[in-house]
Amino acid sequence: MIWVSRYDYEKGIQLAVHAHDYYQIIYLINGDINFSYGGEPYPLNRGYCAVISPGVEHGFIHDNQSVVKTLDVKFRIHSTRLNQLMKQIIGLHATVPKEMVVLLEQIKYEGTHQQPFFREMASLNLLKIVYMLHRKSTEAQTFSHSRLLGMEVLSGTEDGQAIVERTKEYIQHHYSGELRVADMAKRIGFHKNYMGQMFKRVCGQSISMYIKELRIGKAKELLTYSELTLKEIAPEVGFKNIHHFNRVFKQVEGISPGQWKRKEIQGIRKDIHF
Predict the structure, then answer these.
(1) 3-state SS class at 59
(2) Cβ neighbours for 49, distance < 8 A, ≥ 6 positions apart
(3) Does the N-terminal or the C-terminal CB of the chain have fewer CB atoms within 10 Å?
(4) What stretches in the chain show pLDDT beneath 70?
(5) What residue spans define the domains of the chain?
(6) Residue 93: which of 204, 208, 226 has the closest Cα?
(7) What is the pTM of this model?
């Protein structure tokens, strides 16, 4: 383990194309960026993860309105077997298990507090992330192969990815209001069960959980970059009252909105070296 840090990037910030001799994991907590990897452009959106190989040039440009927040880990691997596994997970991951995000936060926690065996604990969490991403990649390949063999029977003319994109777009524009899956399905033009099935298959989570996490993500932006109170933020991101907001925030983040804001302010742009 070399380094872990939380960063915020305002509009117009550019990370110049560069390369280094260690691995890097960049997890996008919030926002969207135009990411360059190996000379090819890729969109990197909220919840995406980039696993970068040593020696490969990469960088990004942030040119939209939302604040981009990242959690970065840089590390070296000396095991031949683990380096072979890393080759299979290098690249962009559109969805990552929520457990992986928790592990990244635990790595940051270990580096921040540096209690006995903090390096060993951080390395164990990193090892879990490598195995988790490898398992996810293997499952994705198996699913793709099954579809080619005709083992997955999908009704309708649009594939799952197209349905997910239309669903996400609708939610992005209406998250501050009341959202019901049945109403969304009618507006988008699919049966609610089919839409829910496709969403969970592609994203690995239910539509309702995606809505919760999106609303909490928007709430965190307002907590950090506005002067609004918790009572004012709640309806802005689709919650009927502050009690509902507090309950869902703690369900998603594990802490209250007030605790999260204090933690965020303390940790921004603080590089942690191992």
Answers:
(1) strand
(2) 25, 26, 27, 28, 92, 93, 96, 100, 133
(3) C
(4) 1, 64-65, 139-159, 267-271
(5) 3-147, 155-169+180-202, 205-274
(6) 204
(7) 0.57
Q: Output the pLDDT for position 249.
A: 93
**So what CATH class is 205-274?**
mainly alpha
Beta bridge partners of 36: 41, 59
- State the CATH architecture for 3-147: Sandwich (2.60)
CA distance 53 to 258: 37
- Tell me what pLDDT residue 146 has: 38
Q: Which two tokens stand for residue 185?
A: 């399905």
Token pair listed for 220: 């965190």
pLDDT of residue 207: 92
Residue-by-residue DSSP string for 195-253: HHHHHHHHHSS-HHHHHHHHHHHHHHHHHHH----HHHHHHHTT-SSHHHHHHHHHHHH
**What is the pairing mode between strands 23-30 and 68-75?**
antiparallel
CA nearest 49: which of 124, 104, 9?
104
* Closest to 58 (Cα-Cα) out of 88, 101, 7, 22: 22
